[in-house]
Amino acid sequence: MNEFELIARYFDRAPLDASVRLAVGDDAAIVAPTIGCEVVATVDMLVEGRHFLPDVDPEALGHKTLAVNLSDLAAMGARPRWALLAGALPRNDPAWIDPFARGLFALAAAHHVSVIGGDTTRGPLNLCVTALGEVPAGTALRRDGARAGDDIYVSGSVGEAALAIAATERRTHLDAATLAHCRGRLDRPLPRVALGLALRGIATSAIDVSDGLVGDLAHVLERSRTGARIELARVPTHPALAQRRAGSERTLALACTLAGGDDYELCFTAPAAARVALAEVARELALPLTPIGTVCEGGGLVVLDEHGVPLATLPRAFDHFAATA
Fold first, then answer.
1. What domain range includes position 278?
2. Residue 304 pLDDT more than 90?
3. 219 and 309 share a domain?
4. Predicted model pTM
5. 168 and 118 inside one domain
6. CA pair distance 97, 88, nearest whole angstrom
């Protein structure tokens, strides 16, 4: 296949709704936004060896390539609508491209996202999605709304994706069942789109946990000009991490839990008056929403250990350039 045959075979799929006026096959796509809504746009790049392991299942990678963008939209309380995919591929291999496209379009269909265009070229494996969503005007969740006294929540659990990487790199050992679970969290993250929609009008700020809990929460605090205190014992993690935190692998467990990244859960703040409403959201979505601390006056982030003592140092959240220094 040449480039255009590849696009026609794998990526020229019929749009899912009438908002798409023109999709794949022209110089640009045309969409019709919903009246009264603002458009939310995000772009993410995934590079082999940096964002995913070379042996990753291509269908899982197709899922994750879109999932990381849907997670950004979820953090803004936006409903996903459209996506564009740009990819550099080292070779034109149908045995790889077919499952990749299958994974991507399955997640797109699950969230009613139309893939409306993109670009392909030959080169080291590099995947980049631009996703567009909508939110009723003035209702988007942002990072700058946290206020002193707000509760801090995190959805689901954190640290499992990082634990999978640690096991793959033989920095720790996991039993087969735990490794399979954690590898699933790494390779097939679940964007919390329904939660993001439910948090509109309830949460005062939100962010998705992609680079590590403490690093991403710090972004919220910086934009909101506030500080925070969180309790390590309340941060929801896998039992394998809780066990390691109490033993010789404590440093590894703290790094995975607080700074591991690739969780794609939502960390958000809300006033105490919203606790009942959030308990109802958690019940309706069958998704744990765990309060882990409180927003404070001033600046900075303090993490209290199991004995209520502040951790002297916090693990560093993921940074593309610092990680290679």
1. 151-324
2. yes
3. yes
4. 0.92
5. no
6. 12
